[in-house]
Design goal:
- The complex is a heterodimer of chains A (456) and B (435).
- Chain A is 33% helix and 10% strand.
- By secondary structure, chain A is α/β, with parallel strands linked by helices.
- In chain A, the strands form 5 sheets. In chain A, strands 1-4-5-10 form a 4-stranded parallel beta sheet, with helices on both faces. Chain A has a 3-stranded mixed beta sheet with strand order 2-3-13. Chain A has a two-stranded antiparallel sheet with strand order 6-7.
- In chain A, a hairpin with a 3-residue loop joins strand 2 and strand 3.
- The longest helix of chain A has 21 residues.
- Chain A is globular and about 65 Å long.
- With 435 residues, chain B is mainly β.
- In chain B, strands 1-4-5-7-8-10-11-14-15-18-19-20-21-22 form a 14-stranded antiparallel beta barrel.
- The radius of gyration of chain B is 23 Å and the shape is elongated.
- The chains are: A alpha/beta (456), B mainly beta (435).
- Chains A and B meet through helix 1, helix 2, helix 14 and helix 15 of A and strand 1, helix 4, strand 19, strand 20 and strand 21 of B.
Chain lengths: 456, 435
């Protein structure tokens, strides 16, 4: 007992010494937690190729430029599966048609916040820095491309981006299959409906039944040529929910009574405040009072009250047109759903993602992002294309789908680092820009004209 | 007596000026006396100094004459964080500035004599609750939108009365005036218009209140069936402090973009008053002490803290009600179990103990403001009798508080997910005098 007591006397000292000495461990800062290791499951990402539209190409704010191309969702996915993506030259293991400088066409910039001035005027186009790359690009997405264009080069001459991306090396399909891909990102369908939405005309709407037939044929052909390849196919988003269509309200208020009054559409017919959409391209008209009834408040430029002139049809998307587009989207997505039942195909629900953003936004940490134009934080300055952060969200949606279907463990893109500050170089409005007190957008038509043309 | 006055003034000043790190679950601080803390805080039944004012007022009447017990604890906190996706992302790490806190304690008891010999009273000043977080690099800290720095300060004044009808039983009650103040710092960010989703700091926000009072009570009972055993029960009631005139300060941060700055300045709320309510839970303690030999005491305590009292942290702004919020906390009642021993030798006394303190915050509420987690405390203590008449006592203790790593499991309410790691070291001293 005495010995035990003697030993116990030292217990406090020993405990104190142990606790302080042990502080090297407990006091040490936590190391960073690493993402789960990459495994490919039943997929093989060693030769990853992307095809699709301007979304896959990383087109933002009305143009292509390498600082956004490298943040396009296919490039982000490529990085997550271990491919090198070189931002400046575009010639890494996942190569693309890198455009330097101001982009092609020059990207619109936010030049003034109040009044809102978005413009690409005075900017020289960038140069294609990777045009002479010997091999085919891995990102073969072409702004303005339809699913039809994947294997049919008939319309390539009408869209300069086919020269930029395709470089006259054959059809997109030929360039894809030449690489013997093991994994393909297949994102078509948006332009089949987007042209109609952005031009306010169903002339641009591609027949959904034809799309379905083309899609099925192309997927079968890919599988026949590369039986071991896996494919991630994107469904078609509801393009009527993008800021390009939702920013301007189809109504205003009477200056005398304060009552809500509808804007004037084609043939001076009052727009339906609950259904019709006024497109972003209506900005120049609205700024001069066109579209606003006489005696009504011009919410875009209060200095120019309503002049009673109607908005042209091209800047209005009527309820009927929207319904037609939505029906087409539904039919096209049924085709995608059917294809996605194949064991080697996984569907990426782009439609669900964008619909969710339109309905309730997207929260990251304690920051809530929305689909609002300029301020929402998810769309670029053309009001159509996703910005850098939204591309990362799309990439993660793709990763989730791929992991679920093929049993892979591809890590998510880090959203915190994906978000960028680009296009934030706002400065006071310059003389001449102040004339449009509400909003001025230059360069929108230039970009739209390059990628949306009526098709057969 | 001048010494006493100086010590009291110093203790009061320290309590008022210094924030305290939470050592117990939630934001409780149970380190209220070096003697009991040497036994890991297991003192509800066996407390034998003036810290009985905190541990169990029923024990006051078992103390002789006048007793004063003055002390302080040095708390050193190390807290770090490692993030996961989606925010702040894998690889993100953060660290708090090492915290150094000095919550003092001061207790005094007096056993009455003659016809009042069965009565005693006491008074105490301590800080039973507190919180201090201070993340490094606040303008870059990934959780800055929620908090960059926070201090919850309390000072509790207690008056207790104790009565022993016989040698076996005693009871005690106390009245508590709990003064609490709070200070919260955060950074407002803005999604850059027309950008790629990136954000810029646009304002520093400080919510600050002076000390406001809340009132509560405590009561205890002590049963000594024989010299070898003591059984005790102590209850400290819940309280709340209404913060009615806090100050909300919004300070604009230049982004380098003149137009953006102008927009931010225009939209920034004016400085104004903010109201809130701070809630402090009840604590029910049951202690059993055993003296297997005259010079040995062992004690086991079980404590239940009603953290479910803390469900929301409301903030109401005077001029901008759109900023009002009620931060959901949904704390859950938690248990703490203390086991300690004391061995009284002729020349000194040594103590040791261990306690387990269950986390009060549900996973969803584990935040940079309060990264609560289960805690394991190992303590050692030393007691000395000083002076010719042995009227002075000097008690020392050391606590190594090992906090379990706490993951948010991807469920944090603010979307700030990852794992927190904490370690707290405490060393305390109390000087007692009886006459």
């Amino acid at each position: 007992m005495t010995t035990m007591r003697n030993n116990l006397r030292f217990a406090p000292v020993l405990l104190l010494a142990a606790s302080l000495a042990g502080c090297q461990g407990p006091c040490q800062k936590l190391g960073g937690i690493t993402a789960p290791a990459l495994t490919s499951g039943s997929a093989d990402f060693t030769r990853f190729v992307a095809v699709g539209t301007s979304i896959s190409a990383g087109y933002q704010s009305g143009g292509l430029v390498n600082r956004h191309q490298v943040r396009a969702f296919p490039a982000l996915f490529a990085q997550q599966v271990g491919r090198t993506v070189r931002p400046d030259s575009g010639n890494g293991a996942f190569s693309f048609d890198a455009v330097n400088g101001n982009g092609l066409p020059p990207l619109m910039q936010l030049r003034s916040l109040s009044p809102l001035v978005i413009s690409n005027s005075g900017l020289a186009p960038g140069n294609m820095v990777n045009y002479r790359q010997p091999g085919d690009y891995q990102n073969l997405a072409v702004p303005g491309a339809l699913a039809l264009d994947f294997a049919d080069s008939t319309d390539y001459p009408a869209n300069a981006f086919f020269s930029v991306v395709g470089r006259h090396r054959g059809t997109i399909a030929q360039q894809v299959l030449r690489q013997n891909p093991t994994f393909i990102s297949f994102e078509y369908g948006a332009n089949e409906v987007l042209g109609a939405a952005t031009r306010g005309s169903l002339t641009y709407l591609f027949p959904p039944a034809t799309y379905a037939a083309i899609l099925t044929g192309e997927i079968d052909a890919i599988h026949a040529a590369t039986p071991n390849a896996r494919l991630a196919i994107f469904n078609v988003p509801d393009v009527t929910a993008i800021p390009f269509c939702t920013t301007f309200k189809p109504y205003t208020v009477s200056l005398s009574t304060g009552a809500v009054v509808p804007l004037l559409g084609p043939d001076s017919v009052a727009l339906d405040p609950a259904r019709d959409l006024v497109l972003l391209t209506a900005g120049p008209f609205l700024a001069t009072g066109t579209g606003f009834p006489v005696g009504s408040y011009n919410y875009l430029n209060p200095a120019a009250p309503g002049n009673g002139h109607p908005l042209p049809d091209a800047v209005v998307l009527s309820g009927v047109e929207q319904d037609t587009i939505k029906i087409a989207v539904t039919a096209m997505n049924q085709a995608v759903d059917a294809v996605a039942t194949l064991p080697w195909v996984v569907k990426v629900d782009l439609n669900g993602l964008l619909s969710g953003i339109a309905a309730s936004g997207y929260t990251i940490g304690s920051t809530h992002y929305t689909g609002a134009f300029v301020t929402g934080g998810l769309f670029s300055l053309d009001g159509i294309h996703p910005n850098d952060l939204a591309h990362a969200i799309i990439a993660n949606t793709m990763i989730d789908a791929v992991n679920a279907k093929f049993g892979a463990t591809v890590g998510h893109v880090d959203l915190a680092t994906a978000a960028s500050l680009t296009s934030a170089a706002a400065r006071p409005a310059l003389p001449g820009e102040e004339g449009l007190r509400g909003m001025q957008i230059d360069g929108l038509e230039q970009g739209l004209g390059m990628i949306f043309k009526p098709r057969r | 007596m001048n010494l006493h006055r100086t010590a009291i003034a110093a203790a009061l000043a320290a309590v008022i000026l210094l924030p305290c790190a939470a050592l117990g679950a939630g934001y409780g601080i149970f380190e209220q006396g070096a003697s009991a803390m040497g036994m890991a805080g297991a003192g509800t039944a066996s407390v034998h100094d003036a810290s009985a004012v905190f541990y169990n007022p029923a024990a006051i009447v078992r103390l002789d004459g006048h007793q004063i017990y003055l002390g302080d604890t040095w708390l050193m906190t190390n807290i770090s964080f490692a993030g996961v996706e989606p925010y702040p992302g894998f690889g993100a790490t953060e660290r708090m500035n090492t915290g150094n806190f000095f919550p003092p304690t001061l207790y005094w008891t007096h056993h009455l004599e003659n016809r009042w010999k069965n009565w005693a009273y006491g008074a105490g000043i301590n800080a039973p609750f507190g919180l201090g977080v201070d993340w490094k690099n606040p303008d870059q800290f990934t959780g800055r939108e929620r908090v960059t720095k926070a201090d919850v300060r309390t000072i509790n004044g207690n008056l207790s009365l104790s009565y022993a009808p016989n040698d076996q039983w005693s009871i005690g009650v106390g009245y508590d005036a709990l003064f609490a103040g709070v200070e919260l710092h955060s950074v407002d960010e803005l999604v850059v218009p027309g950008g790629g989703g990136g954000k810029l700091n646009v304002a520093h926000v400080i919510l600050k209140s002076s000390y406001k009072p809340g009132y509560t009570w405590n009561a205890g009972g002590l049963w000594t069936p024989n010299p070898a055993w003591k059984v005790a029960l102590n209850y400290r009631a819940q309280s709340h402090v209404a913060v009615t005139n806090g100050e909300a300060t919004f300070t604009y941060v230049a982004t380098g973009n003149a137009q953006l700055d102008a927009v931010v300045r225009e939209g920034l709320p004016a400085n104004q008053t903010v109201a809130s309510e701070l809630r402090f839970p009840s604590i029910l303690s049951l202690g059993v002490a055993w003296n297997p030999e005259p010079d040995w005491t062992w004690e086991v305590d079980a404590n239940k803290t009603s953290w479910s009292w803390f469900q929301k942290l409301p903030l109401a702004f005077a001029n901008n009600p759109e900023l009002d919020q009620a931060i959901t906390e949904d704390y859950q009642d938690s248990w703490r179990v203390n086991v300690g021993a004391e061995h009284r030798l002729p020349k000194f006394t040594y103590r040791f103990g261990y306690y387990f303190d269950q986390a009060a915050a549900p996973t969803e509420s584990v935040t940079p403001l309060l990264p609560d987690a289960n805690r394991h405390g190992a303590t050692a203590g030393l007691g000395l009798k000083l002076g010719k008449a042995k009227a002075w006592t000097l008690d020392l203790y050391e606590l190594a508080l090992f906090v379990e790593d706490r993951s948010t499991d991807g469920r944090n309410r603010d979307g700030f997910n990852g794992t927190y790691k904490s370690f707290i070291n405490a060393a305390g001293v109390n000087l007692g005098y009886h006459w």
